[in-house]
Amino acid sequence: MIEKSEEMKALLVKLKDETLQEIHKAMRSGSENAGGEPTGDIYDQASSERDRELGLLLSDRERDKLRKIDEALLKIEDGEYGICEECEEEIPLGRLKVMPFARYCVKCQSDIEKIQAQTRRFEEERAYREIAFGEEEEA
């Protein structure tokens, strides 16, 4: 188990370094494109704005990934790494090599995603019903 933890710690540290480089690259790119007078026609400006928003979205994902990596590194230090947070079974090494910051085994992750999808569908249906009832009241 200690050997696995050291291997995974090295993998996580490498992943963290790569993620930090991506964040810095996105920040540099964003600061280069930000500010100044708008250039080009409206289509160029719209394209630049879309690229900037995409960059911000990606950097948010990178920051989230970084947080998960840090949590995994803390779990290694605490001796809790590789244990599913839901069923408390050991997460297979193959899954950890693919996703070193995984918090759940495949079965539990699948169950969680099913529940989230059902909840999302329920909330969307409720929002559509509210919109439909609102339109009927106006008529």
From TrEMBL:
Zinc finger spans (dksA C4-type) are 84-108
Record-level Gene Ontology MF annotations: zinc ion binding
Please list where the region (Disordered) is annotated. Answer: 26-46
The answer, when asked if Zinc is one of the entry's keywords, is yes
What InterPro entries does its record include?
A: DksA_N (IPR048489), DnaK_N (IPR037187), Znf_DskA_TraR (IPR000962), Znf_DskA_TraR_CS (IPR020458)
* Key words, A-Z: Metal-binding, Zinc, Zinc-finger
- Domain DnaK suppressor protein DksA N-terminal spans what residues? 6-76
Which residue range or ranges hold the Zinc finger DksA/TraR C4-type domain?
79-114
Which PANTHER family does this entry report, sorted A to Z?
A: GENERAL STRESS PROTEIN 16O, RNA POLYMERASE-BINDING TRANSCRIPTION FACTOR DKSA-RELATED
What is the name of this protein? Zinc finger transcriptional regulator, TraR/DksA family
Per the UniProt entry, what species is this protein from, by scientific name? Geobacter sulfurreducens (strain ATCC 51573 / DSM 12127 / PCA)
